[in-house]
Design a protein that fits this description.
binds adenosine-5'-triphosphate; five-stranded parallel sheet; ATP-binding; ATP hydrolysis activity; 11% strand; 12 helices; metalloprotease; alpha/beta
Length: 266
């Protein structure tokens, strides 16, 4: 909190234990954590620390959360951004924002820059020219090529559509590590529920395994939403803890929302 007062960037308290499931991805990130925490070890071996990682997969699956956890595990400054906020009407504005972002991150290193919706600036370039977008993307490439690997700045990009991205962004030395972040399977859904009920009073009759079975096709964000909705219902119903009825209603509500959006057929 003191950091905020001094206008310092956030150093998140999020840890890997807050991210349920995604075991393979977390295993891969353990090496990145070691890179950030012990750069000399790698430099003395002549190894280059990776600069860019791409998280791709459906929405709400923990991409932002994982990036925060990577910063939290390494006590890095966290710079969240969204690709869409760089795309402006006036040519050069986006590029300038990219430059400023990297300047700040280098100053506060070790840093994790997180660019959500990176496809908004990193989509394949077309023959039809779009000066503002092209300049913004070029600036991002320049920044990624520009900082030396002795400055510990890791850039994480997130997208729902890996296939949309420009090849130039994926070249070695840029976003050359790609990690798929998918929807949770039944075991991961159970783990995610456990994370989100940890600080909530739950009736002993609530069977988490059963909740996990009934939420096929849902993302971590949906499950977190269910736990929160159930808690709100318990307050509304004057209950002393969250019971099966509240969870049933919360699941129904989320399913109804999904069907309305026609996002997933459950
Ligand atoms: P988007 O693509 O829409 O930006 P995202 O993949 O970045 O989504 P997050 O913002 O990380 O998704 O997830 C939203 C919320 O859902 C998290 O803050 C967290 O509460 C919950 N959540 C998602 N995945 C997990 C997970 N694996 N473990 C625990 N909580 C999760």
């Amino acid at each position: 909190k003191d950091d905020k007062k001094n206008n310092r960037p956030d150093r998140p308290s999020t840890r890997f234990v807050d991210v349920a499931g995604l075991d393979e991805v977390k295993e891969e990130l353990v090496e990145i954590i070691d890179f950030i925490n012990n750069p000399e070890k790698y430099h003395s071996m002549g190894a280059k620390i990776p600069k860019g990682i791409l998280f791709y997969g459906p929405p709400g699956t923990g991409k932002t959360l994982l990036a925060q956890a990577l910063a939290g595990e390494t006590d890095s400054a966290f710079f969240p951004a969204s690709g869409s906020e760089f795309v402006e009407k006036y040519v050069g504005v986006g590029a300038k924002r990219v430059r400023t972002l990297f300047e700040k991150a280098k100053k506060e290193a070790p840093s994790v820059i997180f660019i959500d919706e990176i496809d908004a600036i990193g989509a394949k370039r077309t023959t039809e020219s779009n000066n503002e977008k092209d300049q913004t993307l070029n600036q991002l490439l320049i920044e990624m090529d520009g900082f030396s690997s002795s400055q510990t700045v890791i850039v994480i990009g997130a997208t729902n559509r890996l296939d949309l991205l420009d090849e130039a962004l994926l070249r070695p030395g840029r976003f050359d590590r790609h990690m798929f972040i998918g929807n949770p399977d039944v075991r991961a859904r159970e783990e995610i529920f456990k994370v989100h009920i940890k600080n909530k009073p739950i009736d002993a009759k609530v069977d988490i395994k059963n909740l996990a079975k009934r939420t096929h096709g849902m993302s971590g964000a949906h499950l977190s939403n269910i736990a929160n909705e159930a808690a709100i219902l318990a307050v509304r119903n004057n209950k002393k803890n969250i019971g099966i009825d509240e969870f049933n209603q919360a699941i129904e509500k989320v399913i109804a929302g999904l069907q309305k959006k026609n996002a997933v057929i459950l």
